[in-house]
Amino acid sequence: MSNIRITKQFSFETGHALYGYDGKCRNVHGHSYKLSVTVIGKPITDSDNVKFGMVIDFGDLKKIVKSEIVDQFDHATVFNKNTPHIELAQELKSRGHHVILVGYQPTSENMVIDFAEKIQKHLPSHIQLHSLKLQETETSFAEWYASDNA
Fold first, then answer.
1. CATH value at residue 36
2. Buried (b) or exposed (e) across 126-136, using 16+ Cβ within 10 A?
3. Which pLDDT band, with edges at 50, 70 and 90, does 62 fall under?
4. Which of 24, 38, 108, 134 is most buried, judging by how many CB atoms fall within 10 Å of its CB?
């Protein structure tokens, strides 16, 4: 049976700031992110299985990504926990805002690495994460490929 790649796309709104950056992105701002998640595996060949012919049910993939990424990052503000933005983060939290503190500079590159790690932990053993594409703007995106990280 052939390996097949399937992709599901997600959207979420997230704010962030890049501490120490020398451009506009040092200011708190937001993006309408688009995340494409591609997994690879063999379609189920057991005709008695309700998921016969599927690599993974799109709904099952959606549950994983929604729980691990979308529900966490949508309408949140992400700051590096090791920067002076911590004071701003604490102020926002005290006012009821959803703030995520991460151990990295919240660039698209670092976020896509974080997302890959989170998604991989929840995939069934017979399904591999093939790639992620995190689109920050209409013309800018970061990609993660399993083959580049083997």
1. 3.30.479.10
2. ebebbbbbbbb
3. very high
4. 134
Tens-digit pLDDT profile for residues 11-32: 999 999 999 899 999 999 999 9
Question: Which of 129, 29, 119, 110 minimizes the C-alpha distance to 70?
Answer: 119
> Are the C-beta atoms of 1 and 39 separated by less than 8 Å?
no
Decide if pLDDT at 1 tops 90. no
Helix H or strand E segment including 81: none
Both tokens of 118, joined, read 């989170």
Of 101, 108, 83, nearest to 19 (Cα)? 83
122 among annotated binding-site residues? no
Catalytic residue numbers, as ranges: 25, 75, 136
Percent of the chain with pLDDT over 70: 100
Asked if pLDDT for residue 39 goes beyond 90, the answer is yes
Give the DSSP letter string of 89-113.
HHHHHHTT--EEEESS---HHHHHH
- Which pair of structure tokens corresponds to residue 68? 């691990």
Range of the domain at 91: 4-148
How many structural domains does the chain have?
1
- Nearest partner of 69 among 24, 9, 2, judged by Cα: 9
Q: Was 98 annotated as part of a binding site?
A: no
